[in-house]
Amino acid sequence: MEFSLQQDASQLDTASSVILPLADLTGGISTLTTDSLKAADNLLSGAISHAIASGDLSSKFKSSQLFLNAGPGPDRILVIGTGTPEQLSGRKYRQLVQAAWSQISSNPGHSVLNQLTTADTKSLDLNSKVRLSVEALVQACYRFDQFKTNNKNIVPIPNMVLLAQTSSQAQLDQSTATAQAMDLCRDLGNLPGNVCTPSFLAEQGHKLAAGSDKVITQVLEEAEMESLGMHSLLSVGKGSAEPSKLIVINYQGGEEGTQPHVLVGKGITFDSGGISIKPGAAMDEMKYDMCGAASVMGAMQAIINMGLKANVVAIVASAENMPSSTASKPGDIYTTMSGKTVEVLNTDAEGRLVLCDALTYAERFNPKTVVDVATLTGACIMALGHHTSAVLSNDDQFAKGLMKAGNQAFDSVWQLPMGEEYQEQLDSNFADLGNIGGRAAGTITAACFLSRFTESYTWAHLDIAGTAWVSGAKKGATGRCVPLLVQHLVNQV
Ligand code: BES
Ligand code: MN
Ligand code: ZN
């Protein structure tokens, strides 16, 4: 879907379909409050006023009526109730855009003028409405049907014109880049584990570099990781026939020599648990255990397309966690790249084992900041459910900045504490630390584990275990936390 901006609300005639908001500004009485509604009512010889008078249409949230127009002007006019300005939150606004789209998506024509950017809201500025419109529409058009043999029902995708001043162009560019990057993130997540292997992710890393002379992708193979001493990372793939990869995507959009921001992604392309094998129910969803990697790669695609003026390095630590006679076992001890030793008490706590070596590797870039992203703990779902990601950091201000970026991007994240008292849960009788911290505070002790490898720089960890995909009938990757990462990087320049 291509997006553009139009400034003049009254110019309806160039679009084949128009979406108009009908706000509740008068305590439930629906009236034509905008010039656009009045103009459309004229074009339709009073049909909108008539629908309101007859009770078929109201300003109630998501009440809607599609009018066909045989005369001059657009072929279709959709009027949709937005409720009161107080009720119209970011979440509701997204639902509104998707409800409008579902009314016209079967036959939108060549272009749609979306005036929902003028909807009256208390809490949303124009840029937020532009962002939410673009992301919600692209999401609504998202299909993942490449493995269906009957996938030829191609729905026409119109050009989408948003009503907004040209000052919103930068927001529009960021939003389209973000929305496309969410599609990439969703695709990588939804791909099955037998296709999306560490080698496949490495190819995707090379693809990101192909179109731009500002990007260099380098893939470290097992032999190179061995000589760097990444024995913790390598331990995770020992039971798998798929070779592990460390994928490094280096984007030089800023001044030469300025410190980069580093993103690190967990790329476990399937997490069976290894010898500490998981129960069978819903185990297919462990193909999503590379969604941290997918978010990071999506964010890189977005900033490359935006030409962000910053240096950013993405490091994806990728392996497949499988049981076999060559797999690592509970009790095995490995030396990490940092020199610290780890006792693997549970092979299912593998994410931290790949991330710790990637975080040590990040030191060589002399990073300004490092953010790692991972579907790290089931405990995060217990703590925050499926709505909010977790952030844990060795710098409170940095964590606050990420929460702010999350609010700006409508991709929320909430800070969990990381006091030193939790660190003791990682004590091991036989090595410097164990890879699990007991049943209590699993998300925090996982972050504590990572914090032992991030002492030399400003660092935050994002646990997206509850937000990266949805289960059930609508099973699929969400594209989170691409919006948060992109906004975070934009806020750094
Ligand atoms: N990838 C999982 C975490 C996960 C589980 C995310 C379910 C989303 C849904 C991770 O590798 C894992 O298995 N974590 C264990 C850690 C435990 C063994 C300390 C967990 O959360 O149970
Ligand atoms: Mn696991
Ligand atoms: Zn995992």
Describe the structure.
The chain has 493 residues and is α/β, with parallel strands linked by helices. It has two domains: 3-164, Leucine Aminopeptidase, subunit E, domain 1 (3-Layer(aba) Sandwich), CATH 3.40.220.10; 178-492, 3-Layer(aba) Sandwich (Aminopeptidase). The chain is 34% helix and 20% strand. The chain contains 15 helices and 19 strands. The strands form four sheets. Strands 7-8-10-9-13-17-14-15 form an eight-stranded mixed beta sheet, with helices on both faces. Strands 1-6-5-2-4-3 form a six-stranded mixed beta sheet, sandwiched between helices. A three-stranded mixed beta sheet has the order 11-12-16. The longest helix has 22 residues, at 169-190. The model has no long low-confidence stretch (mean pLDDT 97). Zinc ion is lined by residues 268, 271, 289, 350-351.
The percentage helix is 25-40%
User: How are the strands ordered across the major sheet?
Assistant: 7-8-10-9-13-17-14-15
Average residue pLDDT: 97
CATH top level class name of the largest domain: Alpha Beta
> What is the CATH superfamily of the largest domain?
Zn peptidases
Structure keywords:
six-stranded mixed beta sheet; binds zinc ion; elongated; 2 domains; binds manganese (II) ion; Leucine Aminopeptidase, subunit E, domain 1; Aminopeptidase; alpha/beta; 34% helix; binds ligand BES; 15 helices; 493 residues; single chain; eight-stranded mixed beta sheet
